[in-house]
């Protein structure tokens, strides 16, 4: 009996032959478009995963793209080649094999770990490359059990990318007719071109598709993009960063994106140490990735121009760092951003951690990646620390900028050896220097297995997580509690290949849990515990999931155009699982996680993401819709917003500033999660609510708490002010507290 891979190859060959002889010159059909896929919102700029992945249809997402390979200073060397990655490259238009197509295989150096530092998280290196033969086939030597990314290019075609593939797979890549994306950036004030702005395009799985800088005329051009959704992140040098632009590309179609950028504001200030002395050479920038940054002069002064932008909260996350000091952040609300804003930073001297990394025989290990990691809220500020270094020829390292208010873990990683983590000693906060001595890296172990349905059908492209760390994690605090918030170092995530197989390499000895789940469906999960010795290989781990049948539909704008990037959610109480999906190309979505036992469920839309990409749209939620498992024609139409205005008064008629006003559908339970919209009153007690055209709403006003009061309403405060059956476009509504 032929294997599955053999059948795939045979089918590809037949398709190629038929296409070559019978389909030449035929009209190219539209390329396939993604629908209802997983969306991972990148939270690198806030330093920790504040925004969760909201997509749920992981098992149905087609293989996606990978970032363009770029030079990296990452020290890790490629793992030894021990397997083969094979496949065939075909024209999606004719079905013919593409001879001479260039195939490049890369990998993320820190794959499977969600490192807070974006630059280090996305560090890449090329593994190998080659060209297809006369039959369109390629065969490349690659390391085994290592997640790889592949890119194929051929003249006249869009590039094709596949992420998270493994040695042993036999791939079929169809290169569509290329989509073309072009545009121009200008300044809104005078129309002058914006030169040197970075244009970064990502696909619907947040993986990089294209990268370039605008030319002298502010122009950019990409000529070989695949069809589908692309999100453009634009970072100019001297203008405000605009909202991300979400664009749908089609094969053979030229799409333009022309933007006039706001000039933004100037932020400046001084960076000093605790004694007030200036710190020259400190870096001040925006977000955890410091994507817009400047350096302080000899007097510790810095200046950033063109800061700000429409509805970009992360642009007010200003950070400062310097060698030998712990980093700091300042979060400014937009109301405080004037045309000339001053923000000063005081940096504390950093804690220093030293040590030496050796092999089991005591020989020093050069090129080991070492990082100090920690997340902690102190003095009202949440900090995520990630300070890294590389061991020298003597195996020694020094981390010199660890924040003194954060509790740390030590992270050690080198290809071929088990990744290890150690909690810092419990008295870390009392030390200026911490010497961790000799640290041994053992040969890495491996855990492999398969993910299938209950009936044994392989589940491809699904998330599998490995939780756990080396058994001597608490070596430096044998009697103390472990460090909290260790999601960065103790959780690894991979994806299954086309045959449902998963692989975790360079695993240390210890107790490991391998898990898989269906988001939003608590009953659909499986877990296996593996006791792994140093350097041991364990295969045959089997996880089983029941995926269920999705609810499918489409989200539309009021003019019935597709609404992409809108979250669709199943309504439920506070204890119900959150079942969500995000509309993809053509507005299509798929909800996975609803069961037969749940019967008919209510669906509603969350449109913040749509308005984020279309700031002038002013669209509100759609009317709710009811659906059951298996329904495939659900339609949700967003509504234009209307404004409801009014004011809040106390019993004497005086304005109440800072009161929260919430609007509910008339008759709906007045729970916070059910609110259509919320706003706070200004100094004159006035408020404005942007609401869908619902007809009538109920309004509830909550009296503001004193600044230091707990969240609950204090004793003696006025009752809620409630006004029912209010027209959603009413003006001058008055809510009054009776006492």
Can you offer a commentary on this structure?
The chain has 739 residues and is mainly beta. Among the domains are: 4-30 and 63-175, Immunoglobulin-like (Sandwich), CATH 2.60.40.10; 179-261, Immunoglobulin-like (Sandwich), CATH 2.60.40; 265-347, Immunoglobulin-like; 642-736, Sandwich (Immunoglobulin-like), CATH 2.60.40.1120. Helices cover 4% and strands 44% of the residues. It contains four helices and 51 strands. The strands form 14 sheets. It has a four-stranded antiparallel β-sheet with strand order 3-2-5-6, with no helix packed on it. Strands 10-9-12-13 form a four-stranded antiparallel β-sheet, with no helix packed on it. β27 and β28 (420-423) form a beta hairpin.
Please specify the SSE layout and strand pairing.
Elements: H1 4-22, E1 81-91, E2 102-108, H2 118-121, E3 124-131, E4 137-143, E5 148-153, E6 160-165, E7 170-175, E8 179-187, E9 198-202, E10 208-213, E11 219-225, E12 228-235, E13 245-249, E14 254-261, E15 265-273, E16 283-286, E17 293-295, E18 301-307, E19 317-321, E20 328-331, E21 340-342, E22 345-347, E23 351-358, E24 369-378, E25 381-390, E26 396-402, E27 409-413, E28 420-423, E29 433-440, E30 445-453, E31 463-467, H3 487-490, E32 491-495, E33 501-507, E34 510-518, E35 521-532, E36 537-545, E37 551-556, E38 567-570, E39 580-582, E40 588-591, E41 601-606, H4 608-613, E42 619-620, E43 625-627, E44 634-637, E45 639-649, E46 660-665, E47 677-680, E48 686-692, E49 696-702, E50 721-727, E51 733-736
Parallel strand pairs: 1-7, 8-14, 15-21, 15-22, 23-29, 30-36, 37-44, 45-51
Antiparallel strand pairs: 1-4, 2-3, 2-5, 5-6, 8-11, 9-10, 9-12, 12-13, 15-18, 16-17, 16-19, 19-20, 23-26, 24-25, 24-27, 27-28, 30-33, 31-32, 31-34, 34-35, 37-40, 38-39, 38-41, 41-43, 42-45, 45-48, 46-47, 46-49, 49-50
């Amino acid at each position: 009996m032929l294997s599955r891979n053999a059948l795939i190859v045979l089918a590809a060959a037949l398709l190629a032959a038929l296409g070559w002889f019978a389909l030449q010159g035929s009209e190219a059909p539209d390329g396939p478009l993604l629908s209802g896929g997983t969306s991972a919102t990148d939270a690198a700029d806030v330093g920790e995963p504040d925004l969760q992945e909201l997509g749920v249809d992981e098992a149905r997402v087609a293989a996606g793209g990978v970032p363009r390979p770029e030079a990296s200073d990452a020290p890790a060397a490629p793992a030894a080649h021990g397997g083969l990655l094979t496949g065939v490259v075909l024209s999606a238009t004719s079905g013919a094999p593409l001879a001479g197509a260039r195939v490049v295989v890369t990998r993320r150096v820190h794959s499977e770990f969600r490192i807070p530092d974006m630059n280090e998280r996305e560090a890449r290196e090329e593994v190998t490359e080659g060209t297809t033969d006369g039959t369109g086939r390629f065969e490349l030597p690659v390391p085994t059990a290592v997640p790889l990314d592949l890119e194929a290019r051929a003249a006249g075609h869009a590039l094709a990318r596949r992420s998270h593939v493994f040695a042993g797979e036999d791939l079929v890549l169809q290169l569509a007719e290329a989509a073309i994306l072009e545009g121009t950036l200008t300044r809104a004030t005078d129309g002058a071109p914006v030169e040197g702005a970075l244009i970064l395009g990502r696909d619907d799985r947040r993986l990089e598709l294209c990268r370039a800088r605008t030319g002298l005329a502010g122009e950019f051009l990409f000529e070989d993009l695949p069809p589908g959704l692309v999100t453009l992140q634009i970072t100019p040098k001297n203008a405000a960063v605009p909202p991300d632009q979400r664009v749908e590309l089609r094969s053979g179609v030229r799409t333009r994106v022309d933007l006039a950028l706001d000039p933004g504001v100037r932020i400046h200030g001084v960076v000093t140490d605790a004694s007030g002395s200036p710190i020259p050479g400190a870096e001040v920038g925006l977000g955890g990735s410091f994507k817009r940054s400047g350096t302080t002069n000899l007097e510790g002064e810095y200046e950033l121009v063109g800061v700000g932008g429409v509805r970009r909260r992360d642009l007010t996350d200003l950070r400062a760092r310097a060698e030998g000091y712990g980093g700091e952040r300042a979060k400014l609300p937009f109301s405080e951003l004037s045309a000339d804003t001053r923000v000063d930073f005081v940096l504390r001297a950093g804690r220093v951690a030293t040590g030496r990394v050796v092999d089991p025989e005591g020989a020093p290990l050069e090129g080991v990646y070492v990082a100090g990691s920690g997340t902690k809220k102190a003095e009202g500020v949440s900090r995520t620390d990630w300070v890294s270094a590389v061991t020298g020829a003597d195996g020694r390292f020094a981390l010199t900028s660890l924040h003194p208010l954060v509790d740390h873990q030590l992270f050690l990683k080198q290809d071929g050896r088990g990744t290890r983590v150690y909690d810092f000693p419990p008295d870390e906060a009392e030390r200026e220097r911490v010497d961790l001595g000799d640290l041994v890296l053992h040969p890495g172990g491996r855990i492999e297995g398969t993910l299938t349905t209950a009936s044994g059908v392989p589940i491809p492209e699904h998330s599998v997580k490995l939780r756990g760390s080396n058994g001597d994690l608490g070596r430096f605090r044998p009697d103390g509690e472990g460090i909290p918030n260790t999601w960065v170092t103790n959780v690894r995530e991979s994806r299954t290949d086309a045959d449902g197989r998963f692989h975790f390499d360079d695993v240390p000895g210890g107790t490991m849990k391998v898990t898989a789940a269906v988001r939003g469906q608590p009953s659909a999960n499986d877990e296996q515990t593996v006791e792994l010795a140093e350097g041991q290989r364990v295969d045959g781990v089997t996880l089983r999931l029941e995926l269920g049948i999705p609810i499918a539909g489409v989200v539309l704008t009021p003019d019935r155009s597709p609404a992409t990037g809108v979250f669709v959610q199943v309504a439920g109480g506070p204890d119900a699982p959150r079942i969500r999906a995000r509309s993809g190309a053509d507005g299509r979505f798929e909800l996975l996680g609803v069961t037969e036992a749940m019967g008919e469920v209510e669906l509603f839309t969350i449109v913040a993401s749509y308005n984020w990409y279309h700031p002038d749209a002013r669209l509100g939620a759609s009317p709710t819709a009811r659906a059951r498992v298996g329904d495939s024609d659900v339609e949700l139409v967003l509504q234009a917003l209307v404004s409801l205005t009014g004011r809040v008064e106390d019993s004497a008629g005086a304005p109440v500033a800072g009161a929260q006003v919430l609007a509910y559908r008339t008759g709906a339970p007045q729970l916070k999660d059910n609110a259509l919209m919320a706003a706070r009153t200004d100094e004159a007690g006035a408020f404005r609510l942007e609401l869908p055209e619902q007809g009538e709403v109920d309004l509830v006003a909550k009296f503001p708490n004193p600044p230091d009061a707990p969240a609950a309403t204090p004793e003696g405060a006025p009752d809620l002010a409630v006004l029912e059956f209010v027209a959603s476009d009413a003006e001058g509504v008055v809510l009054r507290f009776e006492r």
